[in-house]
Design a protein that fits this description.
By secondary structure, the chain is α+β, with helices and mostly antiparallel strands. The chain has a single domain, classed as YaeB-like fold, CATH 3.30.2310. Helix content is 22%, strand content 41%. It is globular.
């Protein structure tokens, strides 16, 4: 939970070093957050100041 809070602080504009990537293709509109082998797929609704976690899984499972 603490790592997710860091992600939200980064999107608020704080200078935090987190590996976030905007996704494309089937996952267009979502972002991937990487913590070691763990992947979190998250959707941000910036206009509503909301973030929705779509999936949390290991690297080999999350994109399939």
């Amino acid at each position: 939970m603490d790592k997710i809070k860091l992600v939200l602080r980064k999107f608020k504009g704080e200078n935090i070093n987190i590996n976030i990537k905007k996704l494309s293709g089937e996952w267009e509109g979502f972002y991937r957050i990487r913590f070691g082998r763990l992947r979190i797929i998250i959707e941000f609704q910036f206009e509503r100041n909301r973030a929705y976690i779509e999936e949390i899984d290991w690297r080999g499972n999350v994109y399939k």
